[in-house]
Specification:
single chain; 361 residues; nine-stranded mixed sheet; two-stranded antiparallel ribbon; 14 helices; 17% strand; Glycosyl transferase, group 2 family protein
């Protein structure tokens, strides 16, 4: 069985760090916590789990802090988490099984990262990240913000998932770091340019975000997945600016990089739906349902290939007075989100409509 060092960087995480450590303390063999300047009781909470607590002066650079945390590890493999991450019980058992079965020739293991959940508690937005790496490979973190771990060698995609369950979020932290980098004359990498644009969107600075998305895309140096996401984010910006023409063009631009993704199809469906071009909208929502993404695709939002297109098709077929087909799509949407108020409302609506039609016939 392999041995695992947990390595984390934290700051003012007293409300969530115990929850995180409780979910993994009996699985890892060592816990290393690097504190970057907490002023709350984070260290006191952590001390209940480990005496391996290290201080690192915050220099507005996440990769530097994470690399320092990895340097504290002494076990065969390193697992990294954020303080508001948790292994839910099913994934705790999967992690235990992975630890027991993993062979030492594997250099890095990816896990799903569940970013958000639907009303039923099912993950509907997730990405894949390399979470468990062999210490002797000395993999390095790169990037001041939205840092990533550069890995190579023998890679393995596991079925373990980490759930992101934040209680709060510092909305100004990342954008402040990026602006400081720009003010000091540092040239942002293509990846940082993309993530800076994302931060600008989160702050409602849509015109500035458009500039940086274009800068990213025209560099032609981005990862294909980020290119596609940049196009769809551009579409969001134009939508907020009520620029329907450029919104439409940005969605289509994503097709330059790969086959249409369900998210792009849903956006096109909505574009035509707004214009009451019902048949065109139906076509694109149906495409969202038939396009199959790879099982381990790095970015997934399951709503765009499950309940959302079905719910929109329900509305569209209702417009066309094809009530049985509309009801069927509502039922299919309900198979994913059975307790959603929209689904329940539609059930009653179609029950009345179909009863009236049966009586009339």
């Amino acid at each position: 069985m392999i041995s695992i060092s947990l390595c984390m960087i934290v700051k003012n995480e007293e409300d969530v760090i115990g929850r995180c450590l409780d979910s993994v303390k009996d699985i890892v063999d060592e816990i290393n916590i690097v504190d970057t300047g907490s002023t709350d009781s984070t260290k006191q909470v952590v001390a209940q789990y480990t005496d391996r607590i290290f201080d690192f002066k915050w220099i507005h650079h996440f990769a530097a802090a994470r690399n320092f945390s990895f340097q504290q590890a002494t076990k065969e493999y390193i697992l990294w988490l954020d303080a508001d991450d948790v292994f839910l019980e099913e994934d705790r058992q999967k992690l235990k099984a992975l630890k027991a079965s993993l062979t030492s020739d594997i250099d890095a293991v990816s896990m799903n990262y569940h970013l958000s959940f639907d009303h039923e508690g099912n993950a509907d937005a997730l990405i894949r990240r390399y979470r468990l790496v062999r210490r002797e490979k000395q993999f390095q973190w790169i990037g001041a913000v939205h840092e990533y771990l550069e890995v190579c060698g023998m890679l393995f995609d596991s079925d373990v998932a980490v759930s992101h369950l934040p209680l709060t979020h510092d909305h100004s932290r990342n954008i402040t770091i990026y602006r400081q980098l720009i003010e000091t004359g540092e040239t942002l990498s293509p990846r940082d340019t993309f993530y800076f644009a994302n931060e600008l969107v989160d702050h409602g600075l849509f015109e500035e975000a458009i500039y940086y998305y274009e800068l990213f895309l025209t560099s032609k140096l981005g990862w294909i997945e980020d290119n596609i996401r940049a196009c769809l984010k551009l579409a969001d910006c134009y939508s907020h600016l009520n620029d329907k023409e450029n919104n439409f063009s940005a969605i289509l631009r994503s097709f330059e990089y790969d086959i249409p993704r369900p998210e792009a199809c849903c956006r096109l469906g909505y574009h035509f739906m707004e214009q009451s071009r019902n048949y065109e909208a139906i076509f694109w929502y149906e495409q969202a349902l038939v396009i199959k993404q790879k099982p381990n695709a790095p970015f997934q939002n399951k709503s765009f290939s499950t309940w959302l297109p079905h719910l929109q098709l329900c509305v569209l077929y209702d417009r066309l007075q094809q009530y049985e087909l509309a009801n069927a799509h509502n039922e299919l949407a309900g198979s994913f989100i059975p307790n959603d108020p929209k689904i329940l409302h539609n059930k009653e609506y179609f029950k009345r409509i179909l009863t009236i039609n049966q009586n009339d016939s």
